[in-house]
Amino acid sequence: MINRTIARIALLLAALTPYWGSAAALEGEEWVSRGEATLYDPWICSVFNVSRYAWPVEVEESATRPGYFRMKNPYLNGKCPLFMAPTSVGNDVYINACDPKGVFIETQGLGFTPNSSVAPEFFVSSSAGRHQENGSQTLEEDKKQGLTGFYNEGIIKIPAAGMLWSFPPYTDEDFYWCKHDFELRFADAVVYEISSEVLCLDDYYLNLWQECVSPGETVPVEITASAHVAAIKYGVIPGVEMPTSAELASIAAGDKVATPGRNDFSAPDGYVGRMSLVFAALDEAGNVRATSRSLFDVVNDSWLGPWENLGWTRFEDVVMLAIYGAQTEPYAVEVEESEARPGVYRVKNAYSVKGYWTSSEGNLHHHEKEDHFLYIDASNPDGVFVMPSPIGMKGNDGSMLLTSQAAVKMSYGYTQDELMNLAPEMFGTLRDGVITIPDSAILGSETRYNGGEYYTGNPGLEFRLKLPSAASVGLTGADTEEVAPRYFDLRGVELTRPASGTPVIELRGSGATKRLMP
To answer: pTM of the predicted model, to two decimals?
Structure first.
């Protein structure tokens, strides 16, 4: 599934040896100190897959070309978290901000190599910098394509799309994109920053974040903002998408105001799934200067109800197996069908603590207060898909939601018929009482992993669910024929030899009943 392993950089850094790169020689350039600024690194974190670091660097500005800067030995100055021992062998990095709306980095070796026997000096650059050096494109063309940065109110920022790195000639002089923006903040920077955390006041969540709430329930949020933020507005947007410019403009023009500190909000009615609580930091003129977002899940026991309980069935998980490699024996779960929308089913507490999974399964925890459901729309037997479903599972990266490619596309405005024609592989089937969803059709999302972005929830594994015989779809005769019963305790754990008098769920074919063992 997803490889969450953070790159082990320690061994790599141990092999770092000084490499004598050629610093840019600018004859006759006079420099004036601009003091210490903060560098937000886009390069090292992109190459080595480590956390993005920020540290202080000395900056000088050209006396003859205002806006032309150099960072003095930024990586080997003894303040970079990755290279704590200062050395004089490192090179300076040059930033051309003479045009405040057309800022770029000039190509420069940093003065070190990851491994002197394999790769030569580490070089940094930018798209516009390379274009200026080889004459392939004008600065105005780069500006129109969004490849340059800006210099405003003491901040230099260049988008990741315009930042480059290389190990020439080890990489055949190819340059590669960065994953993060370049940012340099001077001491007099005017910073508009805002952040938010959905907090927890209840012990059962096992951590500091409340992410799973019922309609009308209070959502406590802690908000921080820098001194330059004049006002904070907020809005609630379904899903995990970043707000569009139109949505941000609507939030800025609205009357929903928040303040730094503790704020309480209410979860919306008539909804199930993930919500984005979006905050916009405004300046004095009412312009949106920064945004922040917190994700939480809304659960609603009555959504699409009333529901008919169809009984118990055997559940074989493939999602936890794919994501965490956590495998368990099949267990019994209850299935319900919507009376308002026949063919829409929900599996009750398949992953929550009221079901089989417990915190003893390693890093998997649960929201314990409410029932949680896995919703499946099988109203079209040839177009079956998982609906947005907060499942009550909580990993190290927050509350988990399961959904599907089809459901996400439909939230963008596609119809089911359109998608079944364009991408039939997104859908599963309902045949002879068995729901089958193909591999990679289920998506997962976690509130604190990768901004809530979706990832494949069942790569290489087919999801199957046999509906109880009370379902509104017909079952084959083989399903109802006499077979040896299987027994489960009331949490769904299968029992090999239940003792007499033990309360059990007896599963025979697709039917299940609660009883005491004779």
So the answer is: 0.69
